[in-house]
Structures are given as structure tokens and as C-alpha cells.
Amino acid sequence: MNQDTNKDSLAVPKQSIYAYTDGCNSGAIDNNAFVGSGVWLSERPSTRVPSHTMSFKSPNDGTNNIKGEIYAAMAAIKWAWDNNYKILVVVTDLEGIMHWGNGKWKATKPITAEFKQSVESYKHRGMDIRFIWTKGHRGAGRHAYGNNQADKLAAQALGK
Q1: Fold of the CATH domain 13-157
Q2: Considering only CA atoms, which of 94, 88, 153, 96 is closest in space to residue 126?
Q3: Averaged in consecutive runs of 10 residues, what is the pLDDT profile of the chain (160 residues)?
Q4: DSSP assignment of 37-106, as one string?
Q5: pTM, entire model
Q6: Contact at 8 Å (CB) between 64 and 34?
Q7: Which of 51, 72, 93, 121 gets the highest tally of CB atoms within 10 A of its CB?
Q8: Residue 143 carries which DSSP code?
Q9: pLDDT digits (tens, 9 = 90+) for 45-86
């Protein structure tokens, strides 16, 4: 039997994707300061070919690279959701992303509270968000390549 179906209504969530996230600051401490965010998304942790990348800057709110790191993680979560991934593994070199995201640390600043609320919202909608901490700026290890690429993307957002 042949039935007309809308392909969009039959979209099956993809299994999982890794999001390597990083942030950096411009070094300026004035009203013209910015932070950079970088995201390297890959369906396998050891691949050299990304599924998607993002590089963008935002005004610095005084939290310096923390804002860049948080905005990178939030952009990765939104992208994975919009692209029907069921499981997102956020790999970060900032422990706070992991601890605010899994609720182990209190989110006392507006930017950390915004992040925590965003993670909870996507989890409530059924997304499985996991966090892995990796040592930053190192040359070896399972997550080193993706982390280094996210670092480059964050710096690129600021023209570094």
C-alpha cells in the first residue's frame, strides 16, 4: 500500500553527537571588549572532519571567557536539538560548564543561571545532555583534537 507522507513528520532523531566547546576573551577590559565562542561538532570523538562548526563573538559582560564558554555550549545544545540529535555530549575544558550543566554547582551569576535554565529546558523536552571535562590545550588524548579546534574557532571569532 502506498501512502503519501510528509517526510518532516517522520524525522527520526539521530543518535548522538559530540560538541567540543571553548571560549576566549579579547584581553580588553573596557566597554569595547568581546568574548569569542567556538563549537566543533562531530559524530565521533576522534574524527578530523566536523559535522558542523560555529564561531561567533559577544559583548563581554565582565565574566570574560566564561561567557564565551557558556554561549558556545548553549549554541551547541540548540544546534543539536534543531538537527534532531537525541544525545549531546558536551566536551569542555572549563569544569564549570559540566558542573553548572549537571546541577552540581550553584548558578549564582546571571550568565550561569541562564545556562543552567537552558540545559534544564532541553532536558525537560527529552534531550539527553551529557558533559565531559577534558584538559585544555594539550596535544594528545581522545578529545584533544576537537578541543583544540573549538579553541581555534573561539579565537577566530575575535580575529586572533
Answers
A1: Nucleotidyltransferase; domain 5 (3.30.420)
A2: 88
A3: 41 79 82 88 86 94 88 98 94 95 94 96 96 82 89 94
A4: EEEEEESSTT-SS-SEEEEEEEE--SSTHHHHHHHHHHHHHHHHHHTTEEEEEEEES-HHHHHHHTTSS-
A5: 0.87
A6: no
A7: 72
A8: T
A9: 877 889 999 999 998 888 888 999 999 999 999 999 999 999
